[in-house]
């Protein structure tokens, strides 16, 4: 078994009011020593270099599925 993850472009957990058909939405993760650039439109975001004075940037909601 492996875990497939898809990071959404939404940081607000209240945007997801229904359960996904497969897997689960998880939130509350943060980064240390890196930053997160949000995607545009349907694009997925990506890791970036750390921004000064932003110690723990929040990761958007993640859709996790067991494969």
Mean pLDDT equals: 92
- Alpha-beta classification: mainly beta
- How many DSSP helices? 0
Cα radius of gyration in angstroms: 13 Å
Distance between the termini: 6 Å
How would you sum up the major sheet? 3 strands, antiparallel
Taking pLDDT < 50 over at least 5 consecutive residues as the criterion, the unreliable ranges are: none
Question: What's the number of domains?
Answer: 1
N-to-C order of helices and strands: EEEEE
**Major β-sheet strand ordering:** 1-5-2
Q: Which shape, going by the Cα principal axes? A: globular
How many β strands by DSSP? 5
The residue fraction in helices comes out at under 10%
Proportion of strand residues:
25-35%
In short:
With 67 residues, the chain is an all-beta fold.
